[in-house]
Design a protein that fits this description.
Pfam families: FXa_inhibition (PF14670). This is Low-density lipoprotein receptor-related protein 6-like. InterPro entries: 6-blade_b-propeller_TolB-like, Cueball_EGF_LRP_Nidogen, LDLR_classB_rpt. It comes from Carassius auratus (Goldfish). By secondary structure, this protein is mainly beta. It has two domains: 8-65, Thrombin, subunit H, CATH 2.40.10.500; 75-114, Laminin, CATH 2.10.25. It contains no helices and eight strands. Strands 1-2-3-4 form a four-stranded antiparallel sheet, with no helix packed on it. Strands 5-6 form a two-stranded antiparallel ribbon. Strands 7-8 form a two-stranded antiparallel sheet. It is elongated, with a radius of gyration of 27 Å.
Length: 137
């Protein structure tokens, strides 16, 4: 098939009850079928069709990827990049982040439970995360 859509040809035209998702990897087209509850593939050139697995309940979309040895270095792979929770590897370098509900400290690597704005360290009660409202006299 050409980039403009010309040169198309039918690879499979029978026994396709309910295709849901499909993906392309190398010389194969893979698809899921809701009715047959299967993952199948067909070779783009030889048209050889194969059932990869069948009788899978609740089968939905599919994504095929090459699984191979990775090359290069990712600073987040070693000690989570020095981050307590989330390490984001960006072209500019490592950046730490926090999940929802946590706050990044001034060291830009440690996440903590945020202190309520109504409280100050002077009014902290015993315990690492218990705070009471500030009162004025």
């Amino acid at each position: 098939m050409e980039m403009d859509g010309s040169g198309r040809r039918v690879l499979v035209d029978d026994n396709l009850p309910h295709i849901f998702g499909f993906t392309l990897l190398g010389d194969y087209i893979y698809w899921t079928d809701w009715q047959r509850r299967s993952i199948e593939r067909v070779h783009k050139l030889s048209l050889e069709r194969e059932v990869i697995v069948d009788q899978l309940p609740d089968l939905m979309g599919i994504k095929a990827t090459h699984v191979h040895q990775t090359f290069g270095v990712n600073p987040c792979a070693h000690a989570n990049g020095g981050c307590s929770h989330l390490c984001l590897y960006k072209p500019q370098g490592v950046s730490c982040a926090c999940p929802i509900g946590l706050e990044l400290m001034a060291d830009l690597s440690t996440c903590i439970i945020p202190r309520p704005s109504c409280c100050s360290p002077a009014t902290r009660t015993s315990g690492a995360s218990r705070w009471r409202p500030t009162t004025t006299t």
